[in-house]
Amino acid sequence: MQDVPLLISRILTHGSMIHGTSQVTTWTGDGEPHRRSYAEIGARAAQLAHALREDLGVAGDERVATLMWNNAEHVEAYFAIPSMGAVLHTLNLRLPPEQLVWIVDHAADRVVLVNGSLIPLLAPLLPHLKSLEHVVVSGVGDRSALADAAAQAQVRVHEYEDLIAGKPTAYDWPELDERAAAAMCYTSGTTGDPKGVVYSHRSIYLHSMQVNMSQSMGLTDEDTSLVVVPQFHVNAWGLPHATFMTGVNMLMPDRFLQPVPLAEMIESERPTHAAAVPTIWQGLLAELLAKPRDVSSLTQVTIGGSACPPSLMEAFDALGMRVCHAWGMTETSPLGTIARPPAHAVGTDEEFVYRLTQGRFPAGVEARLTGPGGERLPWDGESAGELEVRGPWIAGAYYNGTDAEPLRPADKFSEDGWLKTGDVGTISSDGFLTLTDRAKDVIKSGGEWISSVELENALMSHPDVAEAAVVAVPDDKWGERPLATVVLKEGSTADFDTLRDFLAGEGRIAKWQLPERWTVIESVPKTSVGKFDKKVLRRQYAEGALDITQL
Amino acid sequence: MQDVPLLISRILTHGSMIHGTSQVTTWTGDGEPHRRSYAEIGARAAQLAHALREDLGVAGDERVATLMWNNAEHVEAYFAIPSMGAVLHTLNLRLPPEQLVWIVDHAADRVVLVNGSLIPLLAPLLPHLKSLEHVVVSGVGDRSALADAAAQAQVRVHEYEDLIAGKPTAYDWPELDERAAAAMCYTSGTTGDPKGVVYSHRSIYLHSMQVNMSQSMGLTDEDTSLVVVPQFHVNAWGLPHATFMTGVNMLMPDRFLQPVPLAEMIESERPTHAAAVPTIWQGLLAELLAKPRDVSSLTQVTIGGSACPPSLMEAFDALGMRVCHAWGMTETSPLGTIARPPAHAVGTDEEFVYRLTQGRFPAGVEARLTGPGGERLPWDGESAGELEVRGPWIAGAYYNGTDAEPLRPADKFSEDGWLKTGDVGTISSDGFLTLTDRAKDVIKSGGEWISSVELENALMSHPDVAEAAVVAVPDDKWGERPLATVVLKEGSTADFDTLRDFLAGEGRIAKWQLPERWTVIESVPKTSVGKFDKKVLRRQYAEGALDITQL
């Protein structure tokens, strides 16, 4: 067979030739959205590559950063930068400024493409971005804040459209090694410095094929996908690459991620598919219930990032939008599982049960569960262990190691190279994953695991409980035991005995898993993205700052 | 990203674990079909690999031949042989015996798996198969003819079920190089010796993903595919591998390829998809029209091998079976194009026009047209040239070359490594291929090409013409000119002037393309597979054996 490397330039060429009339539509918020065909995207990506190489001197596998919303120019960057052999580095605009500075420095970004609307975010950082030499601005937004900061930081500012104007609309894309770096993305872990995940041409190409498989998202050129998941977040789940393989149209919200514009763009542009995290969708649901609109085009919604609450899934089902769970992470490109019910469950009561799981592993993702003692656990739907995965689009190390000494922390990679996901769950005999906890939050009690999430959910189902967080605390006899920290609703008089009896009732929680240590707190500490910050609670407990009742 | 090779063993493991309850159903012709789950196939494939290695001494990348119909045991061989590192060599049971002998010798097959029903074909060949040491027989069929021949040829005969019985149901599949040979298939060209096409693990893996993409066949585990296209013909178009990736069920007709059993298995097993060549489907249509049955389950039919006549497509549409054209060849794994109409044509008059083309190139297949003078031709739907293709599942050489000196005949591969398909046609601006002729049959007249097929179709649309073949003959002025050879219907009195005027009428054929040389023949010579044998006509013309009228 011919030895043809799997390259992003081939996806670009395919999309812009065979699906030249497919479109990227970008929401502008002021009437007419902006439309650009795949053929135009292809021509402009070539122009951008010429400009980056000839005008800005981008060479070799240099990183080129983007600080952009989802829009047509960001798609052009997605294809131009890797196709020319450089590495697309998407910056997460939601990160705290100091993390952004750290990441740009770590990746040694010399060029950043930025949307005009994000200048207020970028300008104050410029003096701190030591490696940066060029800023390329596209789209609307006041440029004035940039001029002074750039002058001070000795950074040159370019207008995107001026930079690419007049460049040739074709580029002789190089024949790269398919294992060469194509794109990178930093994980925003809660502990330690961010870690860079580097995607190769091969991994992106294979992942895109997977996204297009009928058991996965399985869209065609009759579809339009509303890509709400940001392009700075794991390559927008691979959608821009996947759509260029099949001619699926893209509807890009740019900065308009609020419920009202989302509802408007669904009604007027009539996408058939959307991809988003549950939080965004929760807001959209409230808007649609408050002000009904014609959203009948949208029949398939892929939800990932965190589990979709059953109530949200049912509410969207009622609107004719079928939610499909997917699970993944930055290190898995991200598609790791997708919850299409198996044939035998379709149309039965079991169907919803399957849809609430994280889903089934596709060909290309191998999975195993590792128990508290490092043992392999069976796929029986009962045994809970840490999920480990392997495959051609799963990270094998983090950025900035060397071939001789790759960056493979032992808490992230097994000795035989599998990725430790940090997620704890079960796998059914037919390969459906159900996640129950994060590995760092699970309570390791006498060689068994207790899920903190299960205890929290059970506690929060009690009418007197506003919020509850369960953390592991050291125990002489069992190693670890659960500590229940509870926020009571105003006026509640429930005591701990009542709550413990409630947990034990109706088979909610097994007796040996019931917490002995209890405390009432005013609110659960949260991280910047709103997740429970359990390390604060663990520290407070260790410092004796919590008033513990022992039952 | 992890460096995980794309191996057939991974497809097998995925299918037998994640889709363990999906089934291969084999038609038996005597009531109850035989059913085997993917989990069982996985276990038995491991047993077969143990038997081949431990009992028959299959080692390294040795070829193991199959002479089998489509059935569960053949699927087991499909996975066991490549997964263990050997090479599956499917023998085309329709080839003339002397070609089979040549091919087995060329591939140095030491082991052949054969269906009991094919013993009458194999037994007489045994004395001539010098490399052969073991015959493994599965399924029904009288074994008696084999014993004598095998004894005479010093070949050992084994029963498939006895051989695998008691072997371990797991096998520690080796981590092979994904570019290693996995399977091979000989082309039955009309000229010269057959040529071996070798598929790699990588090419089969990628091709399977492609088959499962939504723009391609795009089946899911809710589907059952009736695999009529033989497993000895380009890996049954990749279906056995593709189905194990997604859990699509397979319905295998074994030796029951006649219209009546096909109609019966469609009615009783209710497949949703079928893959076949037009000839088989033509017979099925006649049967269904003669004796209507409930074939409502079957909504999608992939037809390839040769173009599906519009009338056949319409007849199947009327039965609710939607025919989808695909084009490919042994050298292209085979999926080269598939005729899913573009979104803008769906539901319009254009839709049928698109469906009659050979289809659109998927991501992974690059195409170009080369004109009579070696120039590249535009994709304008008008310029006809020889189709050349490139991609990771396209052959780059034939079997038995070496790395230093690959077997790449100049009429089959361009200097820069693209496959010359030998097919002549046009490509539209949106990438739809329409084939008009074979390169060897096209008439090269004054630097332009005249399609022999177009002239033949136009001639055969005349009511007095039963058959017509057009071949190129040398011409002093133009290089080549068309010679029209015509079979008249009984009692016809049409003369050549009438026929030429008919061709020229209603814009059927351009004036400069009209033949000057005409002859009446009794019948068009045919090859063993029923195609026009034009080299016979060219030879007869060269020898002066035809009575030519010059207009």
TrEMBL record, chains A, B:
Ranges where the AMP-dependent synthetase/ligase domain occurs: 31-399
Listed GO MF terms: ligase activity
Domain AMP-binding enzyme C-terminal: 454-531
Pfam families: AMP-binding, AMP-binding_C
CDD domains to which the protein is assigned, alphabetical: ttLC_FACS_AlkK_like
Superkingdom as given in the UniProt entry: Bacteria
Alphabetized PROSITE patterns for the sequence: AMP_BINDING (PS00455)
Alphabetized UniProt keyword annotations: Ligase
PANTHER family, per database record: LONG-CHAIN-FATTY-ACID--COA LIGASE, MEDIUM-CHAIN-FATTY-ACID--COA LIGASE
Name of the protein in its database record: Long-chain fatty acid--CoA ligase
